[in-house]
Amino acid sequence: MEVYASLAGRPPPARRRPRMSARHRQIALDVLRAALAAVAPEAAIRRSLRRDGDRLLVGNQSFDLTQYGRVRVVGAGKASGAMAAAVEPLLGGYLDAGLVILKDGHTVPTARVTLREASHPTPDARGSKAILLLSGPSAGQPSPMTAPC
């Protein structure tokens, strides 16, 4: 019937969408909020990293932070800024510095981790320049990561 109506130059009959009850709408919103909270970068850090005194617990591995001269945060990706911000208080005084490369418009306030914006998904000169900061030790530049976790 709709095909014939549109061929005749008339709009198809309006379809009525079933209305969602206020209760069902609230349930759907609660599920959506819980799903978004579960995948939030901060939540991922809380699930993956813990600190027990001088020990950093990463999954089933344990690192004695007193055995490292400098602890640095290195990251890349849209969520890496929020993750770096969540790691900073966790590492506290053990955190020396860090560098995170992220998509334009995804910066968040950080105290010790430097955030560098770059284009995504196509790399640009800003991203290439930021990567060079990770490539080797020199004055004021981070060293390559030696013990990734």
Strand adjacency order, main sheet: 1-2-3
**H/E element string?**
HHHEEEEHEEH
Taking Cα atoms only, what radius of gyration do you get, to the nearest Å? 24 Å
Proportion of residues in β-strands: 15-25%
- Unreliable residue runs: 138-149
Q: Distance between termini?
A: 62 Å
Q: Biggest β-sheet, characterized?
A: 3 strands, antiparallel
By DSSP (H or I, 4+ residues per run), the number of helices equals 5
Q: How many strand segments?
A: 6
This entry's quaternary arrangement is single chain
Helix content: 25-40%
Mean pLDDT: 84
Question: Can you characterise this structure?
Answer:
The chain has helices at 2-7, 22-38, 41-48, 80-91, 125-132; strands at 49-52, 55-58, 61-64, 71-76, 95-103, 113-118. It is of the alpha/beta class. The protein has a domain at 69-132. The protein is 34% helix and 22% strand. α3 (41-48) packs across α4 (80-91). Residues 138-149 have low confidence and may be disordered. It is flat. Strands 1-2-3 form a three-stranded antiparallel beta sheet. A three-stranded parallel beta sheet has the order 4-5-6, with helices on both faces. The longest helix is centred in the first third of the chain and has 17 residues, at 22-38.
What's this model, at a glance?
This protein is of the alpha/beta class and 149 residues long.
List the helices and strands and how they pair.
Elements lengths: L1 H6 L14 H17 L2 H8 E4 L2 E4 L2 E4 L6 E6 L3 H12 L3 E9 L9 E6 L6 H8 L17
Parallel strand pairs: 4-5, 5-6
Antiparallel strand pairs: 1-2, 2-3
